[in-house]
Design brief:
The protein is of the alpha/beta class. It has 13 helices and 13 strands. The protein has helices at residues 20-34, 69-90, 106-114, 126-133, 139-152, 161-169, 213-226, 241-250, 268-273, 293-300, 331-343, 345-362, 365-375, and strands at 3-8, 38-43, 58-61, 95-99, 118-122, 155-158, 177-179, 200-204, 231-235, 257-261, 277-280, 305-308, 323-326. Helix 8 (241-250) links the parallel strand 9 (231-235) and strand 10.
């Protein structure tokens, strides 16, 4: 049996939680299990009780870093020796797969020393992101250890071209980098959106500033002038919620906007099924390097998407076929796009069906795992039954 070590040392990601990053971890583990692999999960933050189908995964918890930025940095650096020891104690492994984290270099260096195939999954320019939005202690160490990880990784999966460029800037060899966007698990979305009731736009995700839910609320207020029974469903929670709630109250939209709060992953498909369109808004003055999981989940739910025209986000939809792109920072343009879909329900449903068909055919986690194993040299041809 193929043995895979999945390493995720980011203390901000509860691997069995409901954040987008948590879902990413869980779905990749599921995809590896579906290939017949035995998976060992190494992380400082396991989160909630694992779903029933992931209880077979061997779980090795690490110490959770805490304290001020410098203390957290020191503790995350110290995790490296623990990770190396755990890999040595629980091995041998056929593949070491790591979700890149700040100050993490041990897994990739261990794989190189032991001549084990390795894959480093990079989801964001973490040093830039931490410096811009939070607080980063020991930045020189963060850069040094990232360089060591990128140089040692045999294969690097970057979720976007921008993230690929970041990895290359820190020493990764271009020929080792593969751009691999997020994906979906079709079994989570057995039913498509119902398209019943009043027109309902929706947002799925953590309420962070860069998701620009404030702009969505501005656009929705304009939409209500022409579609007075329209509703807005906001599925998720986060630090921006108090400000957004105040914005809703000030606009007199309390009865039309519903905040669900954080919901378990198992409940997400049902919430999406209540929508008529999914929204992915981003600010034009922010760097865009994401592969929004929400976009692929909207598609899996059979929803058309309206997205901001930033970075390569518009390239993730087929314009006019599976979604619509609009200029960022323009509530009027977003409102007009929603109004067109509200006024043409047949078009919205057709776009949703096409989106669902496309994502299931080309971008599932099974596809991603297949490409990972092929790239790592652990299989030489597609595994029977793989999509």
């Amino acid at each position: 049996m193929m043995r895979i070590a999945y390493v995720s040392t980011d203390p901000g990601i509860p691997v069995f939680g409901c954040k987008g990053a948590s879902i990413h971890v869980q779905e990749m583990v599921r995809a590896f299990l579906a290939k017949g692999a035995d998976v060992t999960l190494i992380s400082p933050r396991m989160g909630d009780v694992p779903p029933a189908d992931l209880r077979q995964v061997v779980r090795c918890p690490l110490q959770t870093p805490g304290g001020d930025p410098d203390e957290r940095a020191a503790q995350q650096i110290a995790l490296n020796s623990h990770v190396s020891q755990v890999l040595d104690d629980l091995g041998p492994f056929d593949l070491i797969y790591e979700r890149h984290a700040l100050f993490a270099n041990a897994a990739m260096e261990y794989a190189r020393r032991q001549r084990i195939p390795s894959v480093l999954e990079v989801n964001a320019p973490l040093i830039d992101e931490q410096t811009r939005h939070r607080s980063l202690g020991r930045i020189d160490d963060a850069i040094l250890l990232a360089c060591r990880a990128f140089v040692c990784a045999e294969n690097i999966l970057a979720v976007s071209p921008e993230v690929a460029a970041y990895a290359e800037d820190l020493g990764a060899q271009a020929e080792r980098i593969q751009v691999e966007p997020n994906a979906v698990n079709p079994s989570r979305f057995p039913n498509a959106a119902r398209f019943d009731g009043p027109f309902r736009a929706g947002f799925l995700g953590t309420l962070k500033p860069w998701h620009d839910v404030a702009l969505i609320l501005e656009a929705f207020a304009l939409l209500r002038q022409t579609v007075p029974d329209a509703e807005l469903l906001i599925v998720g929670d986060g630090p921006e919620r108090p400000k957004l709630t105040q914005q809703v109250e000030a606009a007199g939209l309390t009865d039309a906007v519903h905040f669900t709060g954080a919901v378990p992953a198992a409940e997400v498909p049902d919430w999406l099924a209540r929508m008529h369109v999914g929204l992915a808004a981003y600010r034009g003055d922010d760097p865009f390097y994401f592969s929004p999981l929400k976009l692929y989940e909207y598609m899996a739910a059979g929803l058309p998407s309206v997205v901001s025209r930033v970075g390569n986000l518009a390239d993730m939809i087929d314009e006019g076929q599976t979604g619509v792109s609009v200029p960022p920072d323009c509530p009027k343009a977003l409102s007009e796009a929603l109004g067109q879909l509200a006024g043409n329900p047949d078009l919205a449903q057709t776009m949703g069906r096409q989106a669902r068909s496309r994502v299931f055919a080309t971008q599932t986690w099974d596809h991603v795992a297949e490409r990972v194993l092929l790239r790592a040299g652990l299989v030489t041809k597609p595994i029977k039954g793989a999509a």
